[in-house]
Amino acid sequence: MLGWLDMSWQSTLLMAPFGASCVLLFSLPDSPLTRPQNVLGGHLLSATVGLVVQLLPLPMELKLALGVGLSIALMQGLGLIHPPAGANPLLILLTTQSWPFLWQTVLPGALLLIMVSHCARRLQTSRLTTT
């Protein structure tokens, strides 16, 4: 769906960490790691960390380590652990994204994943109760 919307809207909604999010959302839907606040909060938090770390005058190797490490610590501290989001700082730093990436790709993409997984789960539940 994200790939189709990429082409239809002429904007980027698809990013590699969302693939890993799909694995969790669709194969382990009852995991605490797939709660909507974890998916959305984890992706937004770690992407923000990546964007902030990008501004620091450090060698790239340190930025990459700091971005991932800080994202993990903040997600853990805030109870928003979503492992795929740990890759967001790497993606942002290696592709030199800017702030609009946060609200043009990360926010709508995470929200769409949450909505689609919720709909899929409801369909699955309704099928189980009718059989």
TrEMBL record:
Keywords: Membrane, Transmembrane, Transmembrane helix. Residues 4-127 form the HPP transmembrane region domain. The keyword Lyase does not apply. Pfam families: TM_HPP. The keyword Transmembrane applies. The chain crosses the membrane at residues 12-28, 40-57, 64-81, 101-120. This is HPP family protein. It comes from Aeromonas caviae.
